[in-house]
Amino acid sequence: MKVDDDANIDKVVSDIQEVGLMKPIVAAEVKKRIADQFTVFAILIGGIGSLTVLTSLLHLFSRFYTLTWERQAEWGLYLAFGATGRDIGLVIVGEAAVVSLTGSIIGLLLGSGLYKGSLTLLEAYQSFPFVHPSWGFLASIAIGIIIVFTGLGALAAWLPAYQGSRIDPSTVMTRGEFD
What we know:
mainly alpha
C-alpha cells in the first residue's frame, strides 16, 4: 500500500491492524530486522574466526614448546659446536615464522576461492547488490594478514625459543634428552 509522504504511518498501520484480516508489512521494519540479522551473523562469523585464530596460535605455541624438549640434543650439539643461544632462538622463531607464513598463504588462497565462489552464488541468485572492493584494497588486506599472522606465529614461538637458547650443552650430553 502506498501512502502520501505526509501521512502518519503509525496511524495507518494501526488502522489496518484493527481490521484484523491482514497484517501490514512496513518496509522500514523489515529493513531494520534484516540489518539486525546481518549484524548478528557478522558477530557470529567474527567470533568463530577469532576462536580459530586463538586455537591456531595455541597449537603453534604448544608445538614449538614441545619441540624445545624433543630437540634438546640437537640444539645442545649446535651449542657445543659454537652456536650462540641467539642462533638457536633465531632457528626456532624462524621455523615458526615459516610455518605461519605458509599457513597464511594457503589460508589466503583457500579463502579467496571461497570468496569468489560465494560471490558467484550470491550474484546467481541476485541475493543483494554487492560492490566489489578494489584490487588494491584486497591486496593490502592480504599483505596485512600475512604480516600479522606471521608476526603472531613468531611471537608464539618466542618463549620456546628463549628456553631452547638457554640449554646447557654439557647437561644435555651427559643426562640425555628426556631426563
